[in-house]
Design goal:
It is built from 7 helices and 5 strands, in the order E-H-E-H-E-H-E-H-E-H-H-H. The protein has 155 residues and is mostly helical. The strands form 2 sheets. Strands 3-4-5 form a 3-stranded parallel β-sheet, sandwiched between helices. Helix 1 links the parallel strand 1 and strand 2. Helix 3 crosses helix 6. It is globular and about 65 Å long. It starts with 10 loop residues before the first strand and ends with a helix.
Amino acid sequence: IYRRQGGCGRLVLIGTGPARDVLSAMAATLDIADAIEIRGPCFGAEKQRKMAGWHFFVQPSRFDGVPIAALEAALAGLPLVVSQETGLAEQVASANAGLVMRDLTASAVAEAFHKAALLSPEAWQRMSLGAHAMATQIGDWTPISAQLRKLYLAR
């Protein structure tokens, strides 16, 4: 849908799984294989190099409560595009750390991609800073350890 509506972004899928061949065949059938890169696992410096070339990290998930990959991307300053079900939607919205998809349909994902593509450089920069701040706050164990200490000492 996104490409048919004039979208010119590129999608990079990282990881492994049984759907890889299905996704490759689907991209070829839809004549969008040139706009999609499907890679295997990516770690360390290679992952950092890859992310440095991206504009957003997209996590359209129905089940990820706290997706670590999305938090890593946010920590690197990548604004997020997430679904409500990721468990990060509220934080992304309140921190201006990216965009939250209204639902998990192809049209909603395409809509989010179009919104992302229309952002001004200044708006993207604000989201980048918001994403980093959000990830830092979520990953800060100081308040968590203080709460745990309080619980243990209460006994």
